[in-house]
Amino acid sequence: MDIKSVNIFDFVDYKRFLASLIGVNGRRRGLYKELAMAANCQPSYLSQVMRKGSKIQLTPDQTLGIAQMLLLSPKERDYFLYLVDYERASSKELKGLLSEKIKSMQKSSLDIGNILDRPKSENQESLVKFYSSWLFSYIHILTSIPEFQSTESISQKINLPGEATLNILSELENMGLVKREKGLWLHSGRHLHVDAESTLVGNHHNNWRQQAMLDTQLKNSIESVHFSGVYSVSKSDFSKIKTLVLESLKNLNALAISSGTEEVVVFCCDLFKK
């Protein structure tokens, strides 16, 4: 279905979401009629729902029909239903409960772990060890490249003594991140990820930003891209920029997963208000 999407989690009003969706697809003929058909209602009724200041709301059944027509993900569908339920609710208590649920789902939608669909590790000891040094994540990824699956080749690549390299590989094996087969160290296919609130996140970012700073000092790093920009933007545009960044991360992650294993590439991204 050739419909330009809009991020539903940018909205706390389902009518604004639908209006924005219709707006960005302005050149697509018949979309309004298709939405009405999916909701099993007449276009004139949908017009009444969408009219500014209208108290008429979609029913849950109509909402589900539109969600299915738009091919919303399960999380997007549930969020859409909560938005409609909020507008339909009459008691202050119910509106309060639904508002908290909506805020929680919005926050969850911005979690990079959820966006990239990475399972979170529960083994705190492994997490502390893994994020204590950039070498753990670097060697972990190196083992996905056939050229660097022996202790010696990894040791030479990172200029680290063989014994120290072996110790890190053994730690990674205990974490289930690499496995030893026929004298080689192979990537297990597993990754670690922690919540954004974890104190270990700072360690991970700091480890790799230090490496990024070192790279900026290398004369032969012409293939690298380093950029820092400071802007003044509107509050609404900041939200749009954040959505663009998160979408880019999702696309980058998908491309990296489907790519081959020849080079270790480091990508650092920061977007924040100061």
Keyphrases for this structure?
elongated; 3% strand; 274 residues; single chain; mainly alpha; two-stranded antiparallel sheet; 55% helix; 2 domains
Commentary on this structure:
This protein folds into two domains: 8-109, no CATH class; 115-274, no CATH class. Strand 1 (178-181) and strand 2 (184-187) form a beta hairpin. It has 274 residues and is mainly alpha-helical. The mean pLDDT is 87. The chain has a two-stranded antiparallel ribbon. It is elongated. It has helices at residues 14-24, 31-38, 43-50, 60-69, 74-88, 92-109, 112-115, 124-130, 134-142, 151-158, 162-174, 200-216, 235-258; strands at 178-181, 184-187.
Q: Secondary-structure element sequence?
A: HHHHHHHHHHHEEHH
Kindly estimate the percentage of residues that lie in beta strands according to DSSP.
under 5%
Structural class: mainly alpha
General shape: elongated
Helical stretch count? 13
Oligomer: single chain
Largest sheet: 2 strands, antiparallel
- Helical percent range? 55-70%
Ranges with pLDDT <50 over ≥5 residues?
A: none
Q: Separation of termini?
A: 41 Å
Number of domains as seen in the coordinates: 2
Any idea what the radius of gyration is? 24 Å
Mean pLDDT value: 87
Strand order of the largest sheet: 1-2
Counting DSSP E segments of at least 2 residues, the number of strands comes to: 2
Q: What topology does this entry show?
A:
Blueprint: H1 14-24, H2 31-38, H3 43-50, H4 60-69, H5 74-88, H6 92-109, H7 112-115, H8 124-130, H9 134-142, H10 151-158, H11 162-174, E1 178-181, E2 184-187, H12 200-216, H13 235-258
Antiparallel strand pairs: 1-2
Helix pairs in contact: 2-4, 4-5, 5-6, 10-11
